[in-house]
Amino acid sequence: MHWRNRAFVAAALVYGLLGGALALWWLSGSAPLTFNLPRIHGHLMTLGFVAMMIYGVGLHVLPRFSGRPLSSERLANLQFYLANAGLLLMIPGWAGGGPLWLHIGGGLAWLAMGLFAYNIVTTVRHYGPGG
Ligand code: HEM
Ligand code: HEM
Q1: 80-92, pLDDT tens digit by residue?
Q2: Would you state the torsion angle of the CA atoms of residues 80, 50, 42, 112, taken in this order, to the nearest 10 degrees?
Q3: How far away, in angstroms, is 41 Cα from ligand 1 center?
Q4: What does the pLDDT read at residue 131?
Q5: Which of 1, 29, 35, 45 is 20 to 30 A removed from 127 (C-alpha atoms)?
Q6: What is the model's pLDDT at position 33?
Q7: Is residue 131 part of a domain?
Q8: Domain residues for 92?
């Protein structure tokens, strides 16, 4: 398995555990109300746990299912850095830092999704008879 796909899966598990712990902190009633903790939890779970798991598993299995190598390993590596930087930059935005963090982090997270979409489409698309 490519190191990047393994790292995506590991990051997903870390984000999932962290997101769950934040939700439990929120439920305990002792979390500071200046933080939008539910939204941080929601995105650690959806963009962190779910999306990163899909990225890691998808980049590993979809080329194998289609019988072709991944269209670009370099773009997938870039996607890994953008997805993680994006999510991590969004968190201060919901922790009282203001919307600029969300715009920058959200933009990077979205670019990562775009790279994933491009890479997967160019890998699994029909290449004519036999492929
Ligand atoms: C460890 C298990 C989990 C616990 C204890 C938990 C708990 C919570 C709590 C307490 C809230 C806030 C509710 C409120 O607004 O008062 C919440 C919101 C939310 N949770 Fe979870 N949750 C868990 C797992 C998940 C998972 C697996 C996902 C998605 C894959 C998820 C997605 C969301 C979303 C999207 C919100 C709404 C966030 C928002 O309002 O911005 N949660 N959860
Ligand atoms: C590029 C990726 C994403 C960006 C930039 C982003 C950004 C945001 C922002 C800025 C908000 C707050 C909106 C407000 O202030 O009312 C929000 C809310 C939310 N997002 Fe995301 N998000 C992304 C991906 C996702 C994904 C993948 C999911 C679920 C699969 C998700 C689920 C939600 C939910 C449930 C809310 C709360 C809606 C509400 O209760 O008002 N987001 N997102």
Answers
A1: 999 999 999 999 9
A2: 30
A3: 6
A4: 64
A5: 1
A6: 84
A7: no
A8: 3-124
Does residue 36 sit within a domain? yes
Query: How many structural domains comprise the chain?
Result: 1
Tokens 């004519």 belong to residue: 128
Tell me how far apart the alpha carbons of residues 82 and 104 are, in angstroms, rounded to a whole number.
Answer: 11
Query: How many Å lie between the centroid of ligand 1 and the Cα of residue 116?
Result: 25
DSSP 31-43: S-TTS-HHHHHHH
Instruction: Count the alpha carbons within 13 Å of 11 in the hemisphere toward its beta carbon.
Output: 25
CB 79 within 8 A of CB 115: yes
Query: Would you tell me how many other CB atoms lie within 10 Å of the CB of residue 80?
Result: 24
How many C-beta atoms surround the C-beta of residue 69 within 10 A?
10
Above 70 in pLDDT, residue 130?
A: no
For ligand 1, atom 13, the nearest C-alpha belongs to: 38
**Residue 128 pLDDT > 90, yes or no?**
no
- Please state the pTM of the whole predicted model: 0.93
**What is the Å distance from ligand 2's center to 2 Cα?**
30
Lining residues, ligand 2, CB within 6 Å: 42-43, 46-47, 51, 102, 106, 109-110, 113
